[in-house]
Amino acid sequence: MDVIQKAFWFLIAIGILVPIHEWGHYRVARACGVKVLRFSVGFGRVLWSRVARNGTEFAISAVPLGGYVRMLGMGDELVAPHEREQAFRNRPLRQRAAIIAAGPVANWLLAIALFAAVAWLGSEQPKAVLGTPPAASLAERAGVRAGDSVHAVSRDGQQWDDIASLTELQAAVSRAQALGESLHLSVSGAQGHGSRSLRLETERLAGRSSDGRQSSAIGLAPLAEPLIRQVVAGGAGDAAGLQAGDRVLSIDGQPVPDAGYLIDAVRRAHDGERPRAMSWRVERAGRVVELTPTPRLVDEGGRRIARLEIGVGTPPETVSVSYGPVDGLMRGVQQSWDMAATTVKLIGRILVGEASVKNFSGPLTIADYAGQSAHAGLSPFLNFLAVISMSLAVLNLLPLPMLDGGHLMYYLFEGLSGRPVSDWWQQKLQTAGFLILMLMLALALSNDVGRYAGWH
């Protein structure tokens, strides 16, 4: 997917989420009798505007990376005597707090609605049937075997939550990793035999950013047949004579049960800095062919791994996952709450040095995810919007002076002390908050660039 498409879907997402946030501020302000001067989607120079009957100017501005609601009496400007009751600063404390909190609340409610819509619409998702885990991965240490089906997960091994698909399992694993907790899996073997409980030590990867290396380290991949799906022209597999459609029977005399085993065997086919030739037996058009492919070594996240430059596996078996009206809504509430709690705890772990700052993502990564989810279909895109909406809600509630959460801290101080925060302190805190936000943005952009450049 090209850059223009990603940028387009990113702007579509911003064009949905930002107005919802500002609409929350606007509606509660109007309900409290505050005069709203301007409702703007975007910052900077106004490109288009229209004044409504109530006197509010609705505008679209040049920089589409946010928005704002400008209310009478939010700053130090003079207010005409006949408009004093409509000035924000003259409203009771509880009303001012409600107006500020309404933006994040609107994003939270939107996230619930979107998560629920995804649950109601349903989707085809990979079954939670696992393939052979990579050597030394968390799944291998836990005792996962090819063909195991995961039915439920638990944080403590006592209270269990049902798992309907591999997608739900991976979400639970990501949440446990972010929180630095282990995850218990209730699994049964091939054909549903031998139910048992396994403990996945996701706390070993606590705080690390989620990427391809972490997926390999966790080792939960869908069961797939050991078929060669694609051979890159001029690659090591092509040079060895591999062809699309080949079924791999054995490697170095060992049977190949599934694609997971095949991928791991190729990755480990090297002795330090030297690739190692492998002895393969493949089935091709009803006959057995013996080949001796030698992979090429590449750097992946500071490690040397072997690659044959081939695509492996078949599409995993899927299951239709959908929920009824009540269950879908409850799932939306639960997903939004879980995401909020996980995000807050992860930020806390980052602040105390227990999690990597690489977990911050910026606009480049968000635009990439926007394009990928839109390309995947309606449900994935709605899920993406729900995740970003919930992230905006949590981010805006952080107690930083330039965010909604910072203003709520001012009002908390005012409620407890009986006096507002002084102008001097507000100026100092605004400056500190601006510097912190710029640091966070710089980290996020640095992480974006690092991901695309392959630095981490």
From TrEMBL:
<dbReference type="InterPro" id="IPR001478">
    <property type="entry name" value="PDZ"/>
</dbReference>
<dbReference type="Pfam" id="PF17820">
    <property type="entry name" value="PDZ_6"/>
</dbReference>
<feature type="transmembrane region" description="Helical">
    <location>
        <begin position="381"/>
        <end position="400"/>
    </location>
</feature>
<feature type="transmembrane region" description="Helical">
    <location>
        <begin position="6"/>
        <end position="24"/>
    </location>
</feature>
<dbReference type="InterPro" id="IPR008915">
    <property type="entry name" value="Peptidase_M50"/>
</dbReference>
<keyword id="KW-0862">Zinc</keyword>
<keyword id="KW-0472">Membrane</keyword>
<dbReference type="InterPro" id="IPR036034">
    <property type="entry name" value="PDZ_sf"/>
</dbReference>
<feature type="domain" description="PDZ">
    <location>
        <begin position="208"/>
        <end position="256"/>
    </location>
</feature>
<dbReference type="Pfam" id="PF02163">
    <property type="entry name" value="Peptidase_M50"/>
</dbReference>
<feature type="transmembrane region" description="Helical">
    <location>
        <begin position="97"/>
        <end position="121"/>
    </location>
</feature>
<comment type="similarity">
    <text>Belongs to the peptidase M50B family.</text>
</comment>
<dbReference type="InterPro" id="IPR004387">
    <property type="entry name" value="Pept_M50_Zn"/>
</dbReference>
<feature type="transmembrane region" description="Helical">
    <location>
        <begin position="429"/>
        <end position="446"/>
    </location>
</feature>
<keyword id="KW-1133">Transmembrane helix</keyword>
<keyword id="KW-0812">Transmembrane</keyword>
<dbReference type="InterPro" id="IPR041489">
    <property type="entry name" value="PDZ_6"/>
</dbReference>
<keyword id="KW-0645">Protease</keyword>
<protein>
    <recommendedName>
        <fullName>Zinc metalloprotease</fullName>
        <ecNumber>3.4.24.-</ecNumber>
    </recommendedName>
</protein>
<keyword id="KW-0479">Metal-binding</keyword>
<keyword id="KW-0482">Metalloprotease</keyword>
<dbReference type="GO" id="GO:0008237">
    <property type="term" value="F:metallopeptidase activity"/>
</dbReference>
<keyword id="KW-0378">Hydrolase</keyword>
